[in-house]
Task: structure prediction
Amino acid sequence: MDTKSLIELQKKQIMMHRTVYVLFCFLRIALQFLNREIQVKNTVIIVGFVVVCVILEEFFYRYDYMRKLSVAQATRYIQCIIAALILCFVQNNDPSTVSVVALLTMFLVDYFLTMGITDKESLATYMIYVGIPILVVLVYKVSSSTANEWIFMFFDMIVLLVVLFFEALAFVSYMRNMDTMIFTQRHEMDDIAEQNENILQMQDKLKSTNDALTLQKIELQTANKQIKMANKEMLAQAEILHYIAMSFDVSKISNQITDAIMQVKKLGFCAVYIKKGVYLNKYANYVIKTDIGLLQGKIRESMEDVYLEMTAEGQLEAVYHEDVREEFPFLKEVRINSVYVKVLGMDNDTYGLFMIGDSRPGLFSDNMSFYDAIIAQFDIAINNAKIYNEMQHMARKDGLTGINNRIYFTQLFKETVDKIKNSNGCVSVALFDIDKFKNVNDTYGHLAGDEVIKRIASVTEDHIDKYNGFVCRYGGEEFVAVLPGRKLEVAQPIIEELFEELCRQVVHYNEYEIHMSVSIGLTAYPEVCKDTDELLKRADWCMYYAKEHGRHQINVDDGSVERM
Result:
């Protein structure tokens, strides 16, 4: 037992001592009153000894002298010696001998406890320390007295010491066994604690490893998704580049690009707007892809306004999240939470609008490289189409009017006729001439004549385009209009409407107003003309018939018209 434990044990013993001291004094005083043969002197000595023990112990306890083990050992040893002397020289034959023996026994036990005895050798040594003084006193008392009772007391003390010795020996053995067992258990507990600590450390390592593996798994999954997305984006861009290299049709290219974006990014909508005239296109071009009902029409109605508003404010691109519905009222009734809008342009010249949106919030906050690459490719497509169309325009279009020239018309007419013959279709052809055009040139000059020709060409092209036909400047003031898939009975009202519109035209040249009139010949295959090679010839015959019979009229082929 360690010194701290021994000191704490001595402090706890004081409480027990107080109880024993009170009982002992009470019994001794009571015995004094009950047995008149007991000497008062002996009672005073014995009670006085007890009182002194109480005072010393209280003093030591109050001032922490018991913290010094040597003080406790000395105190207990002196108490043992004094108790033995009282028992031998003072007690005599008093009836309270047993109580004094109990007191002596208590001091002996406390003395042993202060020594912290853990082996038999120490026990024998401490027993000699206590036993020799007691034996000396007893021997002296016995040798100086003739009373037989002292012999019995001597043997009683011998028996008491022997009993105490063997009991203490047993206690020491028990304590040693307990210490060994406790040490073993503590060692086992330490081993278990160490094993538990190792297990906990291993668990922590496994948890850390598992967390790291989980994080790596997530990172790998994320990287895999990014790689797959990058592959899809690269494949889409490669397909778009291939398509751009193979085609100059902006409408088809726009469809290809929007389809690729929708397929790769799974957006709510994707829309492209190209304004009129960018690549010599007559009309604005719209391509809008979405699976949301009614949204396509709403976007088409609003895109030009958005484009004009952004270009007026000098805003080239914008991303909208929380304020989507405030900026785009047409999205109020649909679940779109992110919108990206970019004005398309090249060389500081804007030509259209790119617009995408989706239900995922915050979608266009970053990682816009794919869209930037697509838009760059779209710029290339527009530029290529513009250059190609300009070249085609130079080769195919009439320099004055901008409509098809005769060379290109011949090619286009042949392709159309071949397709109609292969599909057993029909076609109507109108050929017309400006009435008295020579008088216009002679009266107002050739520049005025040019203005008249341009007006006729423009009105005719706009009108025929509405019915999916095509026109060309066939000669100086002669024009041809072709209506594929239109029978004669369908084509005639169309041409009559064109005739009326042309005759309403007035060209203002300087201070003059030049009114116009035309003569038109109309024929159709296969209703009237059975041979496609004769379509233009018969239309020409019909036109000349109209001119020869008063001009300013339409002559419809009935099969009877011949060369004039």
